[in-house]
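Ticket #221: bound-state structure for SN-glycerol-3-phosphate.
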Amino acid sequence: MKFFIDTANLDQIREAKDLGILDGVTTNPSLMAKEGITGTNNVMKHYKAICDIVEGDVSAEVISTDFKGMIEEGQRLMDIAQNIVVKVPMIKDGVKAIAWFTEHEIPTNCTLVFSAGQAILAAKAGATYLSPFIGRIDDMNWDGMELIKQIAEIYGIQGYDTQILAASIRTPLHIVQAAQAGADVVTCPLSAILGLLKHPLTDIGLQQFLADHEKAKAKSN
Ligand code: G3P
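RESOLUTION: The complex was predicted; output attached.
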């Protein structure tokens, strides 16, 4: 399973990269706004800065909601760097745009996916990645992980190549469950990635090992 970081924060992207486990980045207009990045030029420059840090795929989302606008925007985004993936919302013109990008060998990430039906449509259009929003489904008191399992089963049966990118991940447990459910990629906040490290028995065990080492060293001196 690939690990993407879901942020537009350059420091967090660098920190995840330094951990040696980072395969890519996803962003969206809300994450850009959170970093105070506004205006087309600044947004483009910021994507370039992200692509300069990360070698793997970087999803950059279109703002247009009509076919023509999405195609033009997608092409401008592709000019930023070779690792850009055009992120397109799961709407009618979005599906049409994904099919067009697929035909022109431009990688896409179909976002805002909340059902298996939408997942089938995105795969048929040839999306490179599919982003079901786990946390937002959980917020509605449904089970986001069930959707990942259902899509993984359907894609397996049908032989679709589209990679399931579990998004709206909020916790380390989401990451573990997404791996178990058959996600190809998880995109997570840095806090969820670092949360995977934590176990009190690791800390206690390490303290003990170091204390025993010190004791043995003192004895031999
Ligand atoms: O990857 C999608 C993500 O950015 C949405 O996450 O936490 O706003 O539902 P969240």
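RESOLUTION NOTES: DSSP finds eleven helices and eight strands in the chain.
TICKET STATUS: resolved
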